[in-house]
Amino acid sequence: MKKLAVAFTGPSNSGKTTLIVKLSEYLQDQGFKVCIIKHDPKDKATFDKEGKDSYKFSQTKADVAVVSPNKTTLFKQSTSSIDDMVKLFGEFDYLLVEGLKTLPLPRIAIFRNEINEDYLCVSDAIASDETIKEIPKSHEHLNLNNISKIAQWIEKNAKKL
């Protein structure tokens, strides 16, 4: 297993989730195991749907695991470190992290329409579409719509865990 990790950052609605989904699908089509961590700094994510048993369990403030034939869903009432998550995932080829700007991982900033300079100091590359005309020379530029080239950048620059 490769155990390569890379992070993605950028303003809301810049396309981070869309890019991660496309990359995950692309890498899995190549035969790789992919894991994803999403940072939820505002505690907005919810667990299952109201009225469902797993929702009722999560409302008790207990840690909950839902195990089915094809997946396991874990809902903890406390935060986890990146190391905890890596251990939980076990063997994988690629770990794609959305957010968590303080993690020391190679990072791609995603921009559309304008570059937000707040993200440049924590980023190694910029992925953008044709709406961005000028890329700072300090950052490698990736075409947001060229998934294979972004995957190549990750292969070359990701952190080995």
Write the layout of secondary structure elements.
Layout: E1 4-9, H1 16-29, E2 34-38, H2 53-58, E3 64-67, E4 72-75, H3 82-89, E5 94-98, E6 107-111, E7 125-128, E8 140-143, H4 147-157, E9 159-160
Helix pairs in contact: 1-4
Descriptive report:
The protein is of the alpha/beta class. The protein has a single domain (4-43, 81-160), classed as P-loop containing nucleotide triphosphate hydrolases (Rossmann fold), CATH 3.40.50.300. Helix content is 24%, strand content 24%. It has four helices and nine strands, in the order E-H-E-H-E-E-H-E-E-E-E-H-E. The protein has helices at residues 16-29, 53-58, 82-89, 147-157; strands at residues 4-9, 34-38, 64-67, 72-75, 94-98, 107-111, 125-128, 140-143, 159-160. The strands form two sheets. Strands 1, 2, 5, 6, 7, 8 and 9 form a seven-stranded mixed β-sheet that branches. Strand 3 (64-67) and strand 4 (72-75) form a beta hairpin. Helix 1 packs across helix 4 (147-157). The protein is globular and about 50 Å long.
List the defining traits of the structure above:
alpha/beta; 7-stranded mixed sheet; two-stranded antiparallel sheet; 4 helices; 24% strand; globular
Summarize the structure.
With 161 residues, the chain is of the alpha/beta class.
- Average of per-residue pLDDT values: 91
How many β-strands, per DSSP?
A: 9
**CATH architectural arrangement:** 3-Layer(aba) Sandwich
What about the largest sheet? 7 strands, mixed
Give the percentage of residues in beta strands: 15-25%
Number of helical stretches of at least 4 residues: 4
CATH superfamily: P-loop containing nucleotide triphosphate hydrolases
Overall 3D form: globular
Give the end-to-end Cα distance, rounded to a whole number of Å: 10 Å
Structural class: alpha/beta
H/E element order: EHEHEEHEEEEHE
| CATH C-level | Alpha Beta
CATH topology label: Rossmann fold
